[in-house]
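Researcher: Re-running this chain for the archive, since the previous output was lost when a drive failed. Same request as before.
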Amino acid sequence: MLAYSPAMAATEVAESVDEISPERLELARKVFSEKCRGTTQEGIAESLSISRSTVCRLLVEYRLIYAKSLAETPTLHLVSQELARLEENESHLREKAATTVSERLHLGYLRLAHDVTKTRLNLLLETGVIPKEPTKLLTLTGHLDSGRGEDDPRTDDEIMSDIMKLLAKGRRLT
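Model: Regenerated structure tokens:
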């Protein structure tokens, strides 16, 4: 006779994830949300009037549902959601920095906003949205529309050369 294990329970849950009712899914979301806020399993069970073992099962179910949803969601969609979240956080921190009266808090908010900006840039680099190799980046920027409404008569080598000259002079590309 086989002993019942958490791995077996997870397998059973994974097989039944597609059959979960909307009410149970909502309850699992509430449990997961409370757990993310730091509430203990006992506290969650008490506040929702369910047993602690039900809390454990709901957490396993929700994690499996979440993992399945991540696996089915296109990577580009996930990246764009994360970029939007980071951009919103950065904007919020900069607003807080602008409205605070304390110089120390002002600098703290700006430092946090800078960290969020670095995180956003790293995400863009790691996902390949921004190429890591300077040549590819320069080639990409070299082919951007000049805004003049006409084709650029320069060759790729001339464009690269012009970009390198601008970078050497310390000018920003716009």
